[in-house]
Amino acid sequence: MTHGFTLDARLAADTEPVADFVLCRVRLMNDARFPWLILVPARPGLSEWHDVGPDDAALLWDETARAARALETLCAPEKINIAALGNIVRQLHIHVVARNTGDAAWPGPVWGAGTTEPYTPDALTSRREALAALLAGG
Amino acid sequence: MTHGFTLDARLAADTEPVADFVLCRVRLMNDARFPWLILVPARPGLSEWHDVGPDDAALLWDETARAARALETLCAPEKINIAALGNIVRQLHIHVVARNTGDAAWPGPVWGAGTTEPYTPDALTSRREALAALLAGG
Fold first, then answer.
1. Sequence-separated (6 or more) residues with CB below 8 Å from residue B126
2. Structure pTM?
């Protein structure tokens, strides 16, 4: 079912791989300001969340919830933000972002807020490994 | 199952009722800049999208998709934005927003963008009735 799927070039450039779920590629946004996962259903030509098929919808729910719980375990955030926007990158991707009072965009949305601050190489490796371990535990 | 549920006061103030689904109250954001529905699961104490129970999760998916399709039918937008943020209002609510190139926040997110422009009374009635008819059709 992933035949024909190619990750959007901008998503590939802005994120780093963390895990492959049954439906979704799970990627870490390379922005140290926010613990931020992006889930991309590996289905070609999909743009709108409500166009996901019924079987995939259940998987997408489950996998998004797993990503949210991994961020909760890792960061104990005040709130999780979940969104499918796609105004710029049309390939369907679900943002799962851990938010806290006083973070760089609080209480506003993270999209378009300020300037991305890439992780240092060590911090990126550390965060990817921690999230991969949590996501593997399901 | 809706016992003990009360709509958050800020959501009540910012929106107008459109339909009652099995799980969600469907409300229209009173901002004429964006065709914008908000779905509120009528469950007390719910804040995070991933804390919705498995049965409700399927309902929430279905009802959110119905809301998105109603906006597509009514407005033929370029993109639908779907999000559960809750940084300010903690009661779980799902935004379903019809977006177009050149709208008041494009391509950025609608939350926190500019100043709300309430509908005129006639326009509000017209939009609520049109959406209620579309949502009743499933």
1. none
2. 0.96
* A→B interface, C-beta within 8 Å: 47-50, 57-58, 61, 64-65, 68-69, 79-88, 90, 99, 106-109, 111-112
Cβ(B33)–Cβ(B118) under 8 Å? no
Rounded Cα distance between B66 and B48, Å, is 21
ipTM of the complex: 0.95
Q: Which H or E run includes B40?
A: strand B36-41
Whether A80 and A94 have beta carbons less than 8 Å apart is answered as: no
Q: Indicate the residue of A50, A79, A82 with minimum beta-carbon distance to B69.
A: A50
Of B76, B69, B65, B4, residue with least CA distance to A61: B65
From the list A50, A86, A108, the residue facing B112 with the nearest CB is A108
Q: Count CB-CB contacts under 10 A for residue A118.
A: 13
Q: What does the pLDDT profile of chain A (138 residues) look like in tens digits? A: 567 899 999 999 999 999 999 999 999 999 999 999 999 999 999 999 999 988 899 999 999 999 999 999 999 999 999 999 999 999 999 999 999 999 999 999 999 999 999 999 999 999 999 999 999 975
Measured CB to CB, residues of chain B less than 8 Å from chain A are 47-50, 57-58, 61, 64-65, 68-69, 79-88, 90, 99, 106-109, 111-112
Q: What count of other Cβ atoms lies within 10 Å of the Cβ of residue B54?
A: 10
Give domain A9-136's CATH architecture: 2-Layer Sandwich (3.30)
In degrees, rounded to 5, the angle at the alpha carbon of residue A50 between the alpha carbons of residues A87 and A20 is 80
